[in-house]
Amino acid sequence: MSTLAQHLLNGLMQGTIYGIVAMGFTIFFGVMNVIKFSHGDVLALGAFGSLSAVLSLQPLGLPPALQLLAAFAAAILLSGAIGALIARTLIMPLREAPPLNMLLMTMMVGTVLREGIRLFYPGGTNPQRYPELLPHGGFSVANVFVRYDGLILVFAGIASIALVHWVITRTRLGLAIRAVAEDSEVAQTMGIDFAKIIPVTFALGSLTAGFAGVLFGLYYSEINYGMGLLLAIIGFSAAIVGGLGNIWGAILGGYLFAGLQTLVVAAIPSLSDYKNVVAFVVVIMLMTWRPTGLLGEGESARV
Amino acid sequence: MRSGSKAMRSISAGPVLVAVIVCAVVVTTLVRIEDQKLLVVELAAIVIATLLAMKFGIADKVETSARHHPWIGRASIIVATLAVLSVLREDTFGLLMLATVLLYVTTCIGVTIQMGYAGLTNFSAAAFVGTGAYTAALLDARHLLPDPLILLSGGLVAVAIGSLLLLPVLRTRGHYAALITLAFGVMFNVFLDASDSLGGPQGLKVGGINLLGWDFSNDLHLFGYEFSFYVNYVLLASVVASLAMVLAAILDKSWIGIWLDAVRLDETTSAVFGLNIGRWKILAFTIGNFLAGISGAIYAKMAGFIAPNNFTLSDSLIIVSIVILGGIGNRWGVPPAALIVILLPEKLQFIQEYRLLLYAALVIGILVARPGGFLERRTRRFDLATT
């Protein structure tokens, strides 16, 4: 019973991280019809940024709450800034290029970030221990032990998704983002500054990745330079299974992927090393069945 | 018509011969030179010479000359290859590098057919290479088949595994299709790492090649000279790479090449004009995977040892980088790009550690500044076919 609950909490945490990453993919796709594959590596960069912020503040002996705040602030600022920079200098100039070129370019940007962390972060080749900043311990409900930190992280993740959703649906900025996503030319004639909204949108999507990077570090207590690659592929899968451009689809896809992994681990423990293989096989099968995603728009050009 | 044939007669074979000799000298010196400063100087010289050759139309002259004297071009390439081998006959490491470059060329020609001709994204080329390599390793351990059949099965198993992806790849487009190959590439790696029967992360050992009594593990003695046994592998790899180039040329010059272009450029319109999109995509995907599988099988037998680390997503990205740097869809861009991308980090120690970073930055630069690659693919000129 308690292992089942542990699996459930684990799956919930993973699903939340995947969902946040997938949400980023879908936001970028919504406004510019691009896949920004460097998203996962922006996450890793945010995580490493927060780690160095915490480590450099440690001699001051601040209380954990302030350290936590510093970690999130550093991750969000760094990943948001790098997201806006990539959008402004690389993605916008290439927006007329074929989609394959754009995908490849962002893959290479991701490689630059990943290799940059590996080569230039002190000891970056090895996994780095992430400090435990959340309260230890937990409580028992009906024989099930629930860790405080896990619970806090899941709630923080879900809250961040809700916050981004609120920004996009309820604020003026969100209105502008949705207008550009709907039709960028008409949006421009309505006085929306395209050249400003795109980097801002990419900053918004990227800072959620930095946030997820800190969640990842706090939950697993370890980060490494390559962590973004698998997260990007899973997040991309989740966004696509849900249907690109649909935020709820992305989040659904994230929890679905984590659910599949958890199911494999819980139901067939001997296959737990193969959990990603099974999950990707299911993703490929789902896409063969629904080529534009579960909640995606239909395809019109059929001959 | 008459003036055309007159012009044809007056075009000399000189430029193509000079170009082949220059390439042979460049390859030999790049492999031989150990001094780091000298290497950098040579690289700078190559870059400047290439730029000048393009600016003053020398590249065009070579191309025209090669088009009018195809057999002189082919014969000179064979002679030059043999000459390079006889100079490098005892340089074990250099020969190993050359064979690796040639196997990369084979794989990249396959990816050129998939991505450059048919417009099928393939971000899992390394996984297909790996399929061929692991097939060779497993068959080799059981001694069931002679080596030529083992190499062939490497290609065929890659095709079989690839055919599992056919339905998803054909039903999806654009980003969705890209994801399928990405997911497959990652899946393949996770699977290899986890699978005990395939050696897990430690990998598998593989024996050398024995082609019908010709044992590749023995040094060669010809004309009183001693050749390192890697010469065998370079010879085999250059034959396979040349066959791949010829296959790509046949496809490109036939109607199939034109249909593939049509499918790539506009699927809907091609279908309206009666082309069976699925058939041509399947053909391109299958040929590409076959070439990747064969080169994987040869690689496994040559290296003697394979592990999941040899076939990661980064390796797939390196393969795609070669195709893009050379000029996507231009098969003649592949060999120089492969030479640069594979050989350079091995020779220049100071960039070894930074090579992925450098390639990634280089590809970003190319995609932003010159999306067609260094040697851009030419538009078809139908007037040439009629003269």
Tell me what you see in this structure.
The complex is a heterodimer of chains A (303) and B (387). By secondary structure, chain A is mostly helical. Helix content of chain A is 72%, strand content 4%. Chain A has one domain (12-226). Chain A has helices at residues 2-32, 39-57, 64-91, 99-120, 148-170, 172-182, 184-189, 194-220, 227-242, 247-267, 275-289; strands at 128-129, 138-141, 144-147, 222-223. In chain A, the strands form 2 sheets. A two-stranded antiparallel sheet of chain A has the order 1-4. Chain A has a two-stranded antiparallel sheet with strand order 2-3. In chain A, strand 2 and strand 3 form a beta hairpin. The longest helix of chain A is centred in the first third of the chain and has 31 residues, at 2-32. Chain A starts with a helix and ends in a 14-residue tail after the last helix. The mean pLDDT of chain A is 87. With 387 residues, chain B is mainly alpha-helical. The model of chain B is unreliable at 1-7 (pLDDT under 50). In chain B, the strands form 3 sheets. A two-stranded antiparallel sheet of chain B has the order 1-6. Chain B has helices at residues 2-10, 14-32, 36-55, 58-68, 70-87, 92-117, 125-142, 147-171, 174-194, 230-253, 255-265, 267-272, 277-303, 313-326, 334-347, 349-352, 355-369, 382-386, and strands spanning 204-205, 210-211, 214-215, 220-222, 225-227, 305-306. Chain B has a domain at 91-338: ABC transporter involved in vitamin B12 uptake, BtuC, CATH 1.10.3470. Chain B is 74% helix and 4% strand. In chain B, a hairpin with a 2-residue loop joins strand 2 (210-211) and strand 3 (214-215). At the A-B interface, helix 4, helix 9 and helix 11 of A face helix 8, helix 9, helix 12, helix 14 and helix 17 of B.
